[in-house]
């Protein structure tokens, strides 16, 4: 009887030791996540805004009080074009002279979406977790300035983000980024942003460079005392190498 108990205890102890030996340490997991983060960062630095031409379709829905407006704008981006942006249509019709004039003035100054922008914040401190699909998720609680711009206002100091990395291919890349406002803030004298959420999605191209395919944002707040919401869905299509 004593021999059986002794053998049983020995078996349990050996199993526990083997389990501990086979489990990755917290330090090893952290080092692996940091190595992946640096790999993604270095890759993002190789992607430039002028790598691709593309079509952008912007669908905007704005609710202010009991008033609701919708707008659909289709544009073409080509870095070789003197103006870079070409306005294709507004709400299904050809653009008028005033709309073309406005684009000619604002187009060259516009922040153009491209995958390389993640390098601006991917070097910042972050923690890492694993989601239900086994993907690594990096959590950035502090973002550099000019990471998140809303109606021309930099809300980066009041924002955080989660970046989900796809490691199924030969080159890991960020396939989805989620930005969230951490606390309400006044963005203009007469306006207050109470809640903001945005999600950007990317796709890897055959040449190994990711491109944006969608950006969805929802902003909730007030203007001159009236509550409102603005939902914007930007889709990017017809990507072609620009060089």
Please state the overall shape, judged from the principal axes of the Cα atoms.
Answer: globular
Q: What fraction strand? A: 35-45%
Number of helices: 3
The total number of structural domains is 1
- Compute the number of strand runs: 13
Radius of gyration: 24 Å
Structural summary, described in words:
The protein is of the alpha+beta class. It has one domain (25-241). The chain is 21% helix and 44% strand. The chain has 3 helices and 13 strands. It has helices spanning 2-22, 26-44, 97-106, and strands spanning 52-64, 67-77, 85-90, 127-130, 136-140, 149-150, 153-154, 159-166, 173-181, 185-188, 191-204, 210-223, 226-241. The strands form 2 sheets. Strands 1, 2, 3, 4, 5, 8, 9, 10, 11, 12 and 13 form an 11-stranded antiparallel β-sheet that branches. A hairpin with a 2-residue loop joins β10 and β11 (191-204). The radius of gyration is 24 Å and the shape is globular. The chain starts with a helix and ends with a strand. 19% of the residues are buried. The model is unreliable at 10-22 (pLDDT under 50).
Top keywords for this entry?
single chain, alpha+beta
Task: Put the structure in a nutshell.
With 243 residues, the chain is an alpha+beta fold. The protein is 21% helix and 44% strand. The strands form 2 sheets. Strands 1, 2, 3, 4, 5, 8, 9, 10, 11, 12 and 13 form an 11-stranded antiparallel sheet that branches. A two-stranded antiparallel sheet has the order 6-7.
Summarize the helices and strands and which ones pair or pack:
Elements: H1 2-22, H2 26-44, E1 52-64, E2 67-77, E3 85-90, H3 97-106, E4 127-130, E5 136-140, E6 149-150, E7 153-154, E8 159-166, E9 173-181, E10 185-188, E11 191-204, E12 210-223, E13 226-241
Antiparallel strand pairs: 1-2, 1-13, 2-3, 4-5, 5-8, 6-7, 8-9, 9-11, 10-11, 11-12, 12-13
């Amino acid at each position: 009887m004593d021999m059986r108990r002794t053998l049983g205890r020995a078996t349990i102890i050996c199993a526990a030791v083997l389990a501990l030996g086979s489990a990755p340490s917290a330090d090893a997991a952290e080092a692996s996540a940091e190595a992946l983060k640096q790999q993604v960062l270095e890759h993002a630095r190789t992607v430039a805004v002028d790598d691709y031409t593309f079509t952008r379709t912007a669908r905007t829905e704005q609710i202010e009080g009991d008033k609701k407006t919708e707008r659909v704008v289709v544009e073409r981006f080509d870095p070789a074009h003197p103006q870079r942006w070409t306005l294709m249509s507004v709400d299904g019709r050809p653009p008028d002279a005033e709309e073309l004039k406005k684009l000619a003035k604002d187009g060259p100054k516009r922040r153009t979406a491209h995958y390389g922008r993640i390098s601006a914040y991917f070097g910042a401190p972050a923690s890492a977790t694993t989601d239900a699909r086994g993907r690594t998720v990096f959590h950035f609680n502090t973002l550099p300035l000019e990471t998140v711009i809303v109606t021309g206002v930099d809300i980066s100091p009041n924002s955080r983000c989660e970046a989900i990395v796809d490691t199924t291919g030969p080159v890991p890349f960020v396939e989805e980024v989620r930005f969230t406002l951490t606390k309400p803030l006044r963005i203009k004298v007469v306006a207050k942003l109470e809640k903001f959420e945005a999600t950007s999605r990317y796709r890897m191209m055959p040449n190994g460079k990711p491109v944006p395919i969608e950006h969805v944002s929802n902003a909730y707040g007030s203007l001159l005392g009236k509550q409102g919401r603005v939902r914007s869905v930007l889709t990017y299509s017809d990507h072609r190498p620009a060089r």
